Amino acid sequence: MKNADLEKHVKGESLFVDDIPEPAGTLYAYVLDSPIAHGIIKSIDFGDIKSAEGFIDVLTWHDIEGENQVGGIIHDEVLLAEKEVHFIGEPIAVIVADSARNAKLIAKRISIEFEKLPVVLDPREAFSKKLLIKPPVIFQNGNVENAWKECSFIAEGTVESGGQEHLYLETQCALAVPKESDSIKIYSSTQGPTVVQRTAAKVLNLPMNKIEVDVLRLGGGFGGKEDQATHWAVLAALAAKKTKRPVKLVLSRLQDLRVTGKRHPYSSDYKIGLTDDGKILAFQVTYFQDAGACADLSPAILERTLFHVANSYHIPNILATGISCKTNIPPNTAFRGFGGPQAMFVMESAIYNASVISGIPVKLIQKNNLLDEGDEFHYGQIAENVNARKCWNYADEIYSFEKMESEVHKFNEDNKITKRGIAYMPVCFGISFTSTFLNQASALIHVYSDGSVGVSTAAIEMGQGVNAKIISIVSQTFSINSDKIRIESTNTTRIANTSATAASSGADLNGNAALIACKNILERLKKSAAEELSLNDYSSISIKEDWIYNKDIKTDLSWELLVNKSYMKRINLSSHAFYATPQIYFDRTINKGRPFAYHVYGTAATVVELDCILGRYQVESVSIVHDYGKSLHHNVDVGQVEGGLLQGIGWMTLEEIKYSDSGDLLSNSLSTYKIPDIYSAPREINIHFLKNSENPFGPLKSKAIGEPPLMYGIGTYFALLNAMRAFNPNVHYQISAPLTPEKVLLALYKK
Ligand code: MTE
Ligand code: LUZ
Ligand code: MOS
């Protein structure tokens, strides 16, 4: 039960794009990007670069033979700036040289004259100036206006949540190699090989069958390479096509931080109404999403925000408005949770303030309103196989909330300047791409004549262990040892029309496709075995641990022997299979449907300790019950819960993205942008999985796991707020994440 890559990673033997041996004649590209956040390009002076050491070529938008366009959902993003620039970091020219160093040095000799235009950095300001990515989107059910009249308590407020840097270890990079007849092979660090292929074809004016994209693995993606690996791959391909030589483009960490998009900051207004016994009757919310300068995936992310308005609760009256605002920062993009965390943070903030106003404990409001079987989500889906209450109750049973609370209470009575706080965080996350058409995948499986197996799918391995899960599926289905199974690179010539590995559905979609392919081959092998054993039908044949059984009696056939005999009989030992998630649909004219195959549930209880003199804090413990269905790989799933939690804690407490007034990223290094390290990790992480949970939509009854655990981190915010209020019950607070130590300190002593 080890992650398939573990040993290679530890020995440093795993290959990433920058490790691929470079073909002879490889050139190196450097991207010259905009130093200003908004303006008109008046002129570009290339000076004497042609005589510079190592100079090979320079490309601008004039060198694009196809369309200068990389926008996927909305066609509003040029690959190379033409007349106007809209954010610091917008690519303007590509310098190609004999070394990466020379390419960068040459770029310094180019000077650009701009006419500056006004810079907008605040989403609400953008909204007031009508700078929108698209018209606002509304999701609603019931009638909030009628419901307010029935409410005993109404709370209103504003919630801010900040951006988040992906900080994948491997920066954005690509290697493009020209092949025969104008075709190009691109090695890219992307979550979406087909997005790269399609965009390269469009920009280079080639049919898609002349672009081959190959991905071995990523050094992390976290959503940052769902859409934004494309630019660099296409730029490398453009340069390779023009120079007719291989071109490599690797962003430095600084450039990667400066020019790529991050999690979307949100600024939101809410109003929540409760009955006296703490039932949430109505919730109204407006989200101002800071999209940055172009759409990228923002509309889809905003939509997922609107799906997750109510987190894990059933609220009969909801009116939610999402507004995607255009500002002059790099286009923000997918990040683990994809707009869901932003919605859930607002929901939990609303409950917190409703509790302050009503005196009803947060825990009671949460528990009273958890989703139940048969409840209708505000987007029309009926909740089935709901595990919200099961996770909550099981967590209460094994961790004892009351005991945890009394320990916190006792600690606070015994200590004057350090205080503890506890908070609960239930999570409900919808699984499936909300754009229904993306929920498809295929697999190509070869059983070679020696019995070894090669598996290709659309899944991209980025550290999340999808390869280990697919190996587990193939190994269980064939009942052969996992060391016979090899996962191939993800390649668009083997697997076409791939959806990005995203939306936590990589293992679901590709695993299901692999399962079908295995079953196809298995059936042929069983028929072949029946023939070998002179049986009339193959229903009594089974394979167990690399050996063939008839009526549970061991035969003389091993897996290898059966495979070889089948090959000699000219039986097809390969299968290409396709999977599309059944039953899902969504009608955007009314924003109702059944967008998700199923939901993932869980509950976390978080205890923090706060030093009220220094403002420093420590997460003491996070105790989780998570619903992973019937796990494909327990250790991988534990790793995903821990990693997601840490990333969520970072977003809520430490990671602060700052731009200057002119739109320059100030938090542009690891000394100014703090991510969680071993010292900021919880002292104790307890993870229990819900028992007896099976998921009819997951391969071998498993559930997706990648994104949902990030949202357990939201509990940390409210645990901290409770610790602050234990020190100073009248503490003046404004809900604004991240709750950094300096913000804590300022709030504690504000008069
Ligand atoms: N885990 C690691 N180690 N590295 C990653 O880049 N990405 C996350 C999550 N876990 C990521 C990760 C995100 S954003 C998603 S959508 C899922 O993994 C994608 O993989 P899956 O669909 O196979 O779960
Ligand atoms: N990407 C996407 C996603 O295109 N659609 C989604 O619904 C989604 N959800 C989570 C993460 N990425
Ligand atoms: Mo994950 S944000 O779906 O790549």
Model description:
- The protein is an alpha+beta fold.
- The protein has three domains: 25-118 and 172-250, Aldehyde oxidase/xanthine dehydrogenase, a/b hammerhead (Aldehyde Oxidoreductase, domain 3), CATH 3.90.1170.50; 266-434 and 588-748, Aldehyde Oxidoreductase, domain 4 (2-Layer Sandwich), CATH 3.30.365; 440-580, Aldehyde Oxidoreductase, domain 4 (2-Layer Sandwich), CATH 3.30.365.10.
- It has 18 helices and 29 strands.
- Strands 3-5-1-12-9-10-11-20 form an eight-stranded mixed β-sheet, with helices on both faces. The protein has a five-stranded mixed β-sheet with strand order 7-15-14-13-8, with helices on both faces. A four-stranded mixed β-sheet has the order 16-27-28-29, with helices on both faces.
- A hairpin with a 5-residue loop joins strand 9 (173-178) and strand 10.
- Helix 13 (466-478) packs parallel to helix 14 (506-532) and helix 16 crosses helix 17 (714-727).
- The longest helix is centred in the C-terminal third of the chain and has 27 residues, at 506-532.
- It is globular, with a radius of gyration of 27 Å.
- Bound molecules: ligand MTE, pteridine-2,4(1H,3H)-dione (LUZ) and dioxothiomolybdenum(VI) ion (MOS).
CATH architecture identity of the largest domain = 2-Layer Sandwich
Instruction: Fill in the CATH topology of the largest domain.
Output: Aldehyde Oxidoreductase, domain 4
**CATH evolutionary superfamily of the largest domain:** Aldehyde oxidase/xanthine dehydrogenase, molybdopterin binding domain
Number of strands: 29
* SS strand fraction: 25-35%
Which structural class matches the secondary elements? alpha+beta
* Tally of discrete structural domains: 3
State mean pLDDT (0 to 100 scale): 97
